[in-house]
# Entry
Amino acid sequence: MKVKEVPQDGKRMLKTTLVHYAVNDEGKFEKVPSNGWDPGYYAGFYLQEEFKELAIEAKKRIKNNETSPLEFFMYNAFLDITGLAQFTEIPKRKVKKHLTPKGFKKLDDAMLARYARVLHTDVESLKKFKSTL
Amino acid sequence: MKKAIAQKPYRHYQGGHCESGSVSSIVNNYGFELSEPMAFGISSNIGFVYLPFVKIWGRPLISWRMLPQSIVKGVQKRLGIKFFIKTYDNEQEGMEELDRLLDEGKPVGIQCSVAYLRYFLGEFRIPNNSHMTVVIGREGDEYVINDPLWDYTTRVHRDDLQKARFSKGPNAPKGFMFYPLEIPDTIDYKKAIKKSIKQVLFMMLQPMFPYYGVLGIKTFSRMIKRLQKNQDKKFVRGLFYHIVTFQEEVGTGGGGFRYIYAAFLREAYDLLKIPELLEASKKFVAIGDKWRLAASSCGKFIQGKTDEVDLEKTARLYRQCAEEEKEAYLLLKKIKWR
# Structure
C-alpha cells in the first residue's frame, strides 16, 4: 500500500485512527494513520446488528416465558452458547439448562454472579430483568 | 547486559498491532530502540491458521498470526532482551503486584480482555482475551493506559481492569504481565533474523497439515468457492462479516500483517544488505494489497446493497494470495546465509 492509498473513508469502529505501514515515494515504510475503511466498518457494524436483532427477539420470548433472561444478556454481550460456556467455565450442558425458564429459577446467587461477571451486569438486574419488561 | 531503566516521561507510541506495538512501546521506553516491525518479524509471528472445526459464534476460526504472548517470548528468545514475565492464580495478588510496580515508576505491559475496557469499543463489547496494552501509571482508582492502537492516552477504572486481566475462556490472560529487565550490549542481528526467517519458512511451507500456512490459505479459498452454491444468503453474509472483521478490523489482521512483515524485511535489508530481502519486502507489500482487495471484493454484498455476489472471484483472489506468498517464501529460501 502506498501512502496515498491508505483508506480515509471517515467511518470507523474504534474511536481512534488506526496505523498502517505504507510505502512512501523513496520506498521506505511510514506509519500512516487511517481514518476508517468502509468494508471493514460495515462488516463490524452488521456483525453488531446481528446480535442486537437476536437480543430483541430474545426479549419477546422472555416476556412469553419461553426462555430465561440469560439469553438476552448473552446476545447483549456478543456471545453464543458455546462462548458463554467457555467464558464462564460452566459446562455447556448446564448452560443449556440454565437457558430455560425452569433452570434459571433454580440458580443460586453464586452461580448468577459468575454469569453476571461475563455478561457485564449484576445479580440484581439478572433477577429483576423479567419484571422490567 | 545492562539494566533496563524506565525513561520519563512515557513517550506515546502508536503501532499497527496490539502485541508488537506494546512490546516495541515498552522496550523503547526502557531505553532500547526496537521498532514494531522488528518485534513482529523477529518473533516469526506471521502465519495463517484456518480451523473449521473450532467455532467462534458458529463460524470457523481464522487467524493470520501465531498465538498471543508469542511476540514477548519471541523477542526475549531471539534478541536476548530479558523480560519479567508472570501470570497469577490469585487476582488480588496480581493487582497488588501491578500497583507496586507502578508505584516504583515502572510501566508494565499486560494482557487483557477487550470486553471490559470501556474506552475500547464502547457498546460493541466483543469478547476477546488476547489484547495487549501498556499501563503507565495510576491515579487513585484509575489506571492510565497507553494503548498502542490508540492515538491518545486513556484511563480505566480498577474494577474493570481487574475483570479484564482475569477474564476466563480461550487464551485466558491470567494476569499476564511483562516489562524488560535487562538489555544486551550487542545483538547479533544476522543470526536472529536468519533464525526467525527460517522458522517462518518451516511453518508456512509445511506440506502436511492442510489448515496451516500456504496449504491453509488454499483450503480456505476452496471453502469460499463452495459457498457460491450455498442458498442460505444470510449465513453466507454473516460468514463474510466474520471474515472481513477478523481479517482487517481486529488484531488478527491479514493485509496489515503482511505490510508489517514487509517493513521488517526492509529493515533487515538495511541492516544486512542482502538483495533478496529487499525483493521479498516488495513482494509482501503486493501480497498485502491482494489480501485487502480480496476482503473488499464483496464490499457491496457486505453492505447489504445486493444479494448477487461473485464468490468465485473472491476465492480466486484468495488463491492468488496463497500462490504469491509461496513465491515470496521460496525467494526467502534462496538466501545464502554465510
